[in-house]
Each structure stands twice: as C-alpha cells, then as structure tokens.
C-alpha cells in the first residue's frame, strides 16, 4: 500500500524528533528535497495540554546550527541586538495567530505568551527561527538567519579531474562541479605551451583562471543566498595539500591558513618558474611539479572571486 504524504510526514517528523509527535501538526517549510524543516503545531496537544510554540524547527541541519549558536551565547546576543518594540510586536502577532487556531469551546488551560510561550525577551532561538522561516516578521529569526549564513563557509574539493564547490547553508547547501582539476587542469590547459617554452604561457594561465572564475560566478548568480563574498573558504582534498606543503616547506601535510596576498604570492612563484624550478621547492614532490600549478590557478580563481574572510588549505573530510 502506498504511503500517503501525511503518513510520510508523520513518520519523518517522528524520526527527526526522536519520538512520536504529541499533537497534530502540518509541515510548513521543507528543504529542496522535500524533507521537513518547520512544522506548525496545533495549539492543544492530543491530551489537551497547551502547546504555546506554534512553529517548531525540526530540520536536522538547521536545528544543529541553531543549537551551536545558542551554545555560543546567541540568546543573550540576539536579545541585545534587536529592537525591543519590534520583538514585543512579534510576540503579540505570534500569540494572536496561534489563538485563532484554538477550537471554539476549548476548556481548561490554554496556550499563552508569544514565541516559545514567552511575552518578553528571547527564550528559544529555534522557535524564533522556525517562525521566521515560515514567513513570520521576526527580528530574532532574521538575526539568527544572518548569523548562520555568515558563519557557514564554502568548501572546495580539488580532485584530479574536477573541483567540487559546496556552499554550506542552514537549510539547503548547494554544490556544483567545475570541470577543472589538478591533472586535467595541467594536461588540457597548460602543458602544450610549457612543452614548447619550458614555462607556461601567461595567456594559458589567465584562460584557466578565467574558466574557473566564470564557473564560480555562474554558481553565485544561481544561488545568491548561499554563495556570497566574505565567507570562510576551505580548500580540501589530497591535491590541496600541495599548496600547503609548498607554503610550509615540508611534507607534514598540515592545514594552513592563507590570506589572498599569500595565495597570489604562491601563484606568481609557480607561474614564473619552469618545471625543474617548481620541483625543487622544499616539501613539494617532483611528481607534483605540474599539478601544483593547476591547483594554484584554481585556488587563485576561488580567492579572487569569493574574497573569503579566511582561507584554509590542505584539509580533508
């Protein structure tokens, strides 16, 4: 027998909560895969207990991100950051909307308060964020969203044949594959001019950087909420360790943090050297003398385009 949407939602929400829901609810926000992110609860549980929190954050990724923000003192910081009058208006509107859903003739205790059952201040960032994601004009939820999106970074994994770029997001991370990696970046774009002159033609370097830059620009254009400048950037995968080893001068494989100026310096060093010169750098294995230049081009393109707040190179997942 085919599972209905309501049955599938009930099962999935129970999985996300780690228990059976105690009252009726509807899914009001989903991620791009259809997975529940926010549910709207009935104002009374099945046994008649008041349920003051009308909107509940259930999405695993978003819940974890908000929990981390709360652990870092986010509740107090949010309360100090938003306008008190706007927050009071949010509580009042939240209560008004929830109260319209209380069945006529309901007896016994009824839900009270605003977001998360409080009348003033901030009690629970999860509840505020849930209400914001569901369309509520919630200054705390908006603050949470801004903090989460500014904290989350962009990750690039440089493989031999492609670079996978992922923009983290509290609801929907997005990924694209750029068809330039350490091996084909060299063999398909740089090797011909190098074989003729011993050094790579600057025009070939510019073209390769432009290819990656155009792909990143298109990725950002299609995903403006997830891809913006100023986020942390981590460049990972075995090939990324080549630049880390070059910077450190050894083969320990340590992840290093580099600013844009240092990335440009490493790129110029590699771009103006011939193969023998690149291979002679301490910490860089001779077999990687070609691939490292392609990695430097990819890294330069990423840092120029994304202008990250910080850039770590050499990590792996």
What string, H for helix and E for strand, traces the elements in order?
A: HEEEHHHHHEEEHHHEHEHHHE
Structural class: alpha+beta
Using the alpha-carbon principal axes, give the shape: elongated
Q: For the record, what is the CATH homologous superfamily label of the largest domain?
A: Exopolyphosphatase. Domain 2
Instruction: State the CATH topology of the largest domain.
Output: Nucleotidyltransferase, domain 5
Span from first to last CA? 40 Å
CATH class of the largest domain: Alpha Beta
Provide the gyration radius in Å: 26 Å
Helix content: 40-55%
Q: Assess the beta-strand content as a share of residues.
A: 5-15%
Mean pLDDT: 91
CATH level-two architecture of the largest domain: 2-Layer Sandwich
Molecular structure report:
This protein is an alpha+beta fold. It has two domains: 5-150, no CATH class; 152-315, Exopolyphosphatase. Domain 2 (Nucleotidyltransferase, domain 5), CATH 3.30.420.150. The chain has helices at residues 5-17, 60-71, 74-81, 84-99, 125-133, 139-151, 182-189, 191-197, 202-222, 241-248, 260-271, 275-279, 291-306; strands at residues 25-30, 36-41, 55-57, 154-158, 163-167, 174-178, 233-236, 256-258, 311-315. The strands form two sheets. It has a six-stranded mixed beta sheet. A hairpin with a 5-residue loop joins strand 1 (25-30) and strand 2 (36-41). Helix 7 (182-189) crosses helix 13.
């Amino acid at each position: 027998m085919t599972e209905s949407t309501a049955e599938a939602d009930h099962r999935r929400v129970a999985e996300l909560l780690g228990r059976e829901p105690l009252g009726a609810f509807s899914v009001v926000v989903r991620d791009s895969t259809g997975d529940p992110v926010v549910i709207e609860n009935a104002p009374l549980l099945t046994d008649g207990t008041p349920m003051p929190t009308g909107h509940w954050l259930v999405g695993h990724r978003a819940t974890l991100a908000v929990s981390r923000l709360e652990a870092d003192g986010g509740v107090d910081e949010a309360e100090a950051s938003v306008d008190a009058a706007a927050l009071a208006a949010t509580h009042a509107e939240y209560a008004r909307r929830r109260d319209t859903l209380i069945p006529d003739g309901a007896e016994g205790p009824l839900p009270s308060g605003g977001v998360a059952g409080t009348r003033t201040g901030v009690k629970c960032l999860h509840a505020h964020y849930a209400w914001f994601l569901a369309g509520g004009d919630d200054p705390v939820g908006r603050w949470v969203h801004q903090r989460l999106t500014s904290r989350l970074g962009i990750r690039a994994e440089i493989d031999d044949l492609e670079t996978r770029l992922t923009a983290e997001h509290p609801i929907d991370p997005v990924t694209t594959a750029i068809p330039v990696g350490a091996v084909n970046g060299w063999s398909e774009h740089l090797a011909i001019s190098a074989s003729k002159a011993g050094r790579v033609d600057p025009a070939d370097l510019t073209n390769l950087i432009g290819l990656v830059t155009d792909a990143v620009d298109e990725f950002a254009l299609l995903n403006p909420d997830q891809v913006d400048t100023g986020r942390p950037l981590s460049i990972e995968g075995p090939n990324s360790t080549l630049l880390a080893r070059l910077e450190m001068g050894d083969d320990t494989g340590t992840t290093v943090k580099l600013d844009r100026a240092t990335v440009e310096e490493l790129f110029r060093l590699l771009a103006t050297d011939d193969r023998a010169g690149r291979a002679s750098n301490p910490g860089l294995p001779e077999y990687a003398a070609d691939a490292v230049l392609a990695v430097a081009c990819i890294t330069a393109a990423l840092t120029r385009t994304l202008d990250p707040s910080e850039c770590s190179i050499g990590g792996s997942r």
